[in-house]
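ok posting inputs for the adenosine-5'-diphosphate job
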Amino acid sequence: MKPEQIWQAALGELQIQLTKATYDTWLRDTRYVAFEDNVFFIGTPTGYAKDWLENRLYGTIRRTLQGISRKTVDVKFSVWANAVEGVKVVQNLHGDPTPKAHAKSATVAAPSHFTSDGRILNSKYRFENYIVGKSNRLAHAACIATAENPATAYNPLFLHGGVGLGKTHLLQAIGNYCAAQGMTVLYVSAEDFANELISSIRSHSTENFREKYRKIDVLLMDDVQFIAGKDATQEEFFHTFNALHQNNKQLVLSSDRHPKSFNTLEERLRSRFEWGLTVDIQPPDLETRIAILQSKAEERGREVPADVLDLLARRVQSNIRELEGALNRLLANADLLKMPMNAQLVDHTITEWIPSHQTPTPDAVLKAVAETAQVSLDELKGPSRKKEIAQYRQMAMFLLREEAEQSLPEIGNLLGGRDHTTIKYGHEKIKDEVECNSEVRRMVSQMKERIYNRR
Ligand code: ADP
Ligand code: MG
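and the output
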């Protein structure tokens, strides 16, 4: 295996070993730079990420690399820039990166864009490599329209959808597009916005903070659900929003839910979020999942037989991040175990993966269903024949069987003493609908996310 493949395989492993937040924050945007004298040189987007990886994750990453390459290797991190003109900026910003590393990466990668505070927009998130299907067509079209005509088409543009469905990808694609036209872009997660605000208050520099957020052309704020319930942050964002909107600047926001389903969002912010266009992204259907896998395999320069991609897409339904993770693992397994790319390899990849999701308890499943559906446990278990409740109950049957591995009679007991034939029918019904009804698919994925504590 080539060193770069080993690094990709290690990322696949780490994605499973670490929490999603840790992986996404520190590893997702790293890149392989070089391998020399048994040392992996890995690029990080910021000096901060470099420090963090060195101090907290070094051991884990090194062990993972050794496990895969089956020899003693070391790993070194440095701040990368993926364009020649970027190198200087990054050096100025973050000190002294490994020059050798840059010489190599500079020649291969696409130009990257810097946001107004020197953060790098990730150039891997572009419109060109975003696969469009029924589940995200509208969101994609709205993002293109916004990127082409900022502050005229839809303002704000509000994207919502479950985890791993491509919100960040689209936000960054708008950013890359607008930055290439020379606009001042700022991409920030709502969490970073909140943290920056707090530290500016602490250091008495709120004026600078405001100044920074008010002089940009395009503000991309990711995961705005984070500011709900945080009064000071909401207040500040309210003013930022108004200042930008009044000056005809574009705002693009993303969230895991529709503005209407925020319980603790101030009314005046909620109504502003709905001023422009609100579009959702649904979990992808089978065809889109296959197309995504094809494109990701191509990006990697790998050939995977169509029937293998098809099988993999059928097995991983939840979200695109997991789909990518499964493909990474499949490729790593093919290389490491020298297995041919066939159904058996898919099986191996999926079963190996499952132990990392511990089997949840039936109670955890019922709780997650009730919370997602916003009904009480009593309603779920009770006799109500109301259409929605009956459907949520069937989703519970499905998840108790698929995720908690309960038998039909056990599920009958858990759900207030129902007959096992009722359970069987409910399970099968949802199993079909997950494939053909996007509302059901979306609801069931949200329930799974909650079961596995991913939100
Ligand atoms: P979110 O922000 O909604 O949690 P991300 O934008 O981080 O999701 O997407 C997760 C991963 O899936 C990313 O690597 C992204 O590039 C990829 N992805 C998501 N949607 C698509 C798509 N339609 N086409 C190609 N890749 C996608
Ligand atoms: Mg995201």
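notes: The pocket of magnesium ion (ligand 2) is lined by residues 167-168, 222 (CB under 6 Å). The longest strand covers residues 31-36.
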